[in-house]
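Possible race condition, two jobs.
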Amino acid sequence: MRRALAILAAGSATRAGVDKVLADLGGQPVLAWSIAAAQAAKCFDEIVVVAPKEKLAAFAKVAGDRARVVAGGDTRTASSWAALDALAAADVIAIHDAARPFAPPSLFARCVEIASAEGSAVAGLPLADTVRRADEVGAATEELSREGLWSAQTPQAFRRELLARARAVAGDRAYSDDAAAVAATGAKPKMVPGERRNLKITTLEDVAYARELVAKGLVGFPVLSVR
């Protein structure tokens, strides 16, 4: 069974104000952290980076010989389908957001193992906070039960046939993540425990916080062990 990883890095960086996945993080571009973690997981036969069409050279420089770089689409979902095309020989495909640099190798390996056996594995965390719905002026209108609610992360891994079916059903529709696209077919993606440190860099404040974690030694750049 051939297993592959697609790291999605083609999205807009407008909320962060900078190209967040090429930003420096502990002396390495943010993107390099995910590539290194995937290599250290030792569960992938191939890694591709899905990058903006106009920045392929810059992303290829970061990827080096560790990953192949392909052009993405105008939406996150379109970039996932570009990855599906690029990984035509893969039986299991994991998809990861490049803006989540702290996903550990063990999480990649866990998602791939479960997806290989059960068809899908979506990293996430059960909600621990109270959840309330509010109106347009911020007034709370309803308290929701958090029982059974998860906050989804990446990586999200699927057998190829699930993603192919999701693509056929999706048409031109865009989804918030790949689990949503798969769920739209009637399938039920399996949630698996993610990691608290697997934060997503969205704003400049997130970039600063990630750098602080690295500077304090709370997270470290993944290293490929030699056996």
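Job #2 (started ~2 s after job #1):
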Amino acid sequence: MSERDQEYYRRERSNEWRVALRANLKQKDRVGIERVKMPAQDSNVRNRNHEEVNQGISPTQAMQEARRCLDCVTPTCIEGCPVSINIPGFIKNIEAGDFLKAAAVIKETNALPGVCGRVCPQEVQCEANCFYTKKLNKAPVAIGYLERFVADYERESGILPELPDIRRNNIKVAIIGSGPAGLAAAGDLAKHGYDVTVFEALHEIGGVLKYGIPEFRLPNRVVDAEIEYLRRLGVRFIKNFVVGKTADFDDLREEGYKAFFVGSGAGLPRFMNIPGENYAGILSSNEYLTRVNLMNAAKPDYDTPVHFGKVVAVIGGGNTAMDSVRTAKRLGAERAMIIYRRSMDEMPARKEEIEHAVEEGVEFRCLENPVEYHADKAGRVKEMVVQRMELGEPDESGRRRPVVIEGSEYTIGVDQVVVSVGVSPNPLIPRQVPDLEVTRYGTFVVNTGTMQTSIPDIFAGGDIVRGGATVILAMGDGRRAAAGIHSFLSGK
């Protein structure tokens, strides 16, 4: 923090200054403040490193942005938040200069603010419900930027957040999977006094937060700090433990576990089943990102194998596709392409991620779809045949359906293809628990209010239920499941 920011912060902490500020700042003054812009690394620098792209905002910027909040009588922004953060409450504390109090307000309902401030799609959730967006047709309060600022300030302050007063009840609950759904459930259950253990199949805690999201979007240090907060709440973590293989549910019941939350995600990649898809150099986005993010394939002191393609095509238009193509650029791709069968307007990826990819030199080939791959004599992909598309009538998703233009096929040379067209739920647990009711897609059937499955002591949420969701929607599931488990174990 600069000396200027420190002085401004000291003044803002003064109650006399704060009262005068609130009295003098009328609604028209607040509405007239321009939304803060997030500084970022230069695009031609960041596309060659793995450092975080967005650089965060300063205390001065945060307090100025907080002044835009109108403190609505009916805060519709909260309605758009899947974990029900008291958004006006934490923002008013930023305006007053009490950043640690703001962090405490967020952590009443969200144990992962540093994560959510970076990767949640606020533009279609809380910020889409902001008064500025709904009534004034102006840029909403930068709720995501402010949440990130508060989390980073607390982490970098060196001051450990105060823990809630917890009455331990010595009832054991198992969480299967340490992704966002599992971590959210673990945090809430620990606050209720349960003896919570998280079982993680991989060698790192964090699930998709570690293996699926690159550090240029979500640094590991942020995830680790928020996991450490859960440890301080009393949550225990066990790595390299596959429920269904290392031990099954009956084994854990014998060890005294009274309820389970399954947040094992959707780690089974989908492919397109087109000719040549088994050639070397064609892999799923899950495998590609896991090798780079979790297994450090891009670092010189690790021997995790990964091909550093020079001409890389990523098939798909979601956030995972953007993460993959931007990673390829950072690994030295001279040409990194998105191949997407609809137009740019139909892409499900966050607008910011698309904009960052464009700035970093990613090529977008929309209204195209691969139909076949060709290989060299060694069996490695050397080119793909793509077919041009046009948009027809909307489908069940509300997006216009892509329609093939007959006879439009042509060939593009490539030496690596990353397929990012969706994932399916992990099938291990349904195979181990035959009485568990699942959909034809393999997702768990749950009571959407409590997240309870057809087996009373098993609850579930996140991608294993939704088949693919955002971090914050998975966390919302985890919180609902924690409340459901608490009611179940309390006999309510």
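The radius of gyration is 24 Å.
Logs attached separately.
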